[in-house]
Design goal:
With 183 residues, the chain is of the alpha/beta class. Helix content is 27%, strand content 11%. The protein has one domain: Peptidoglycan recognition protein-like (Lysozyme-like), CATH 3.40.80. A hairpin with a 5-residue loop joins strand 2 and strand 3. The structure holds zinc ion. The site of zinc ion has 6 residues, from helix 1.
Length: 183
Amino acid sequence: MWKVVRGNLREWVGIVLHHGAANAKTERHDIQAYANFHVKPAADGGRGYSDMGYHFGIEEDGGIWISDAGEKARWVWQRPGSHTKATKSLDGKIVMPAGVNSSCIGICFAGNFNEEELSRLTFESGVRLCVALLREGIHENANVIYPHSRFQEKDCPGKKFPFEEFVKTVATELRIRAGVKIA
Ligand SMILES: [Zn+2]
């Protein structure tokens, strides 16, 4: 017998952006290194997760990783991430009773953007991914993209991460795809 589980699935309501330096104590900055660190047992200095704690990872060359937790892609099956342990924004304006990890897709950009600039390839790849996810049905609105620092006292995704420009670019792309003329 088929059991319909759709009703149990939560809807994604936003996207939270991260950089790898905030959450992974690795020497190398690439998504494989973060995933290895996340999967390593806590007793060995890792996190002991079933997979990378983010739903997606973006490499410096723009390549996109999809976390699959060994079964199905996290984001498709609404599996919570382990990227933002909070239920509301620091200013209290955004409240997510089920928790940000369960309500928002987490995207990690490989690198440390407190120290380095985001490459153009990474930026564009991140924009494309967000546009696709937002069009897939979160909200066709770039206002639901948040920096991790909105929810926790962290400088993630990094002081040099061009967050405003990123959201503006996603918003423009969404409008172009919706057939709105850009003046
Ligand atoms: Zn973060």
